[in-house]
Amino acid sequence: MLRATAIGAIATLSATAATACSSVTPGKSGGDGGGKTVLRVQGMPPGTDKAGLAQFDKQVAEFEKANPDVKIQGSTTVFDPLTFSAKLAGGSVEDVIKVPLTEPQRLIAQGQVQPITGRLKEWDHFKEFNPQVLKPLSDAAGGVYGVPQNPYAQGLVYNRDLFKQAGLDPDKPPTTWEEVRSDAKQISSRTGKAGFVQESKDNQGGWQLTMLSYAHGGDMERDSGGTYTTAFDSAPTKQSLQLLKDMRWSDDSMGRNQLVNQNDVIKAFAAGQVGMYMGSPGTYRLAKMQFGMENIDAFGIGPMPQSGGSATLIGGDVYMVPKSVDAKHAQAAVKWLIYAYAQPQYDTTAAAQAAKDLAADPKAAVGVPTLPVFDAQRQTAINAAIKPYVNVKLENFQPYTDGLGKLELKPEPPFEAQTVYTALDSVVQSVLTERNADIDALLSKAAKEVDAKLATDQK
């Protein structure tokens, strides 16, 4: 079973749910850059992330020196589920695209990305990739279509200060959802803060409901001979929604604002207004760097609580090559993916240098646990290499790292995950804003809508 490792030094972990997209109008593959192959790549950090941008620029300079026939053209474009498919179909995307882990299986099934297995296998350390990390990026025959960056597993983030104020032990976060409900009520009644907050909009309500369903033993989709249909109109998802309904209306432990996304929740958490929420260790960075959490040592995280299940959702970012990219650019793209994302997560010297560079910025977070991209032996070496530059309290992540190894790691719904999340957003919102919301009816309606969409897309 995988365990979390204190890497977190390679690049800033993006929030796993959808974010706004900055538009680009890329040129055609094969563009001439003074006789060089111009490779347009997503993944360039925004100007506000000075440490990340400096690291990206350094990587580009070093890559171009080692590959003088290639010129990298960075893009700050980020994934937008509302526009991505149309842009990809129209060819108006870069040569290297960055997508959340919700997307690879759909893109592979629809033939919109190309396998890179052969070129990846030319790298000496291909066999050391963690197969569980590559599985969501592969087809049924084992062909690999992408390179992961900072994969993560969801857990329960909590405010250690509010736990203390509520008379709870900050070193022992709740491990069942019954305990979460009890602790949330205690936090709310003793501190006046929201004991637990559930994201509910921008596809993040459905995303987090998926986490809850997994923890209750459920699935969101089922594969029937290669055809996907919904599986969320079932007892585990209904139990998950009933839990939210009880916490919202019976316990009054979820605060006043129920229509929130991840940034809203982390911003409130950073201000000391939220006791618990579902999130990954990487949300530490957002609390610190984006929202200026003053007492960042109050950040704590435990494994995903379980009530009938034994699983947690995994996610992360994936870099892929669109099907439309020609062979010359695809070859350059895989070289870039290995150099910029695989090698830094494998090589101890590169990892240590990346950690050192990030640690020079007092706002950066170095050492936040992630999932291992490679085998255990390599991850142990990576952890040792970056140890001198770690600037987070690893003991505050210890409940998470101790508990994660006991859980199954489940990927997001394999087909049209964003469609599932969109439909379930409305269900979550209704449960949190309507006291008499009919859970059975809401799920039945959502299932019919999603099944119709899945049937159309799989013809």
Number of strands: 11
User: Would you identify the CATH H-level superfamily of the largest domain?
Assistant: Periplasmic binding protein-like II
Residue stretches low in confidence (pLDDT < 50, at least 5 long) are 7-30
Largest sheet: 4 strands, mixed
| Architecture per CATH nomenclature, i.e. the level-2 architecture of the largest domain | 3-Layer(aba) Sandwich
In CATH terms, what is the fold-level topology of the largest domain? D-Maltodextrin-Binding Protein, domain 2
Number of helices: 17
Distance between the termini: 37 Å
Q: How would the global form be characterised?
A: globular
Structural class: alpha+beta
Short characterization:
This protein has 459 residues and is α+β, with helices and mostly antiparallel strands.
Which SSEs are present, and which pair or pack?
Elements: E1 37-42, H1 50-66, E2 70-75, H2 84-90, E3 97-100, H3 104-109, H4 117-121, H5 131-134, E4 146-153, E5 155-159, H6 160-165, H7 177-191, H8 204-215, E6 221-224, E7 227-230, H9 235-250, H10 262-270, E8 276-279, H11 283-290, E9 299-303, E10 311-320, H12 327-346, H13 348-359, H14 376-386, H15 398-404, E11 408-410, H16 417-433, H17 439-457
Parallel strand pairs: 1-2, 10-11
Antiparallel strand pairs: 3-10, 4-10, 5-8, 5-9, 6-7
Helix pairs in contact: 8-9, 8-16, 10-11, 12-13, 13-14, 16-17
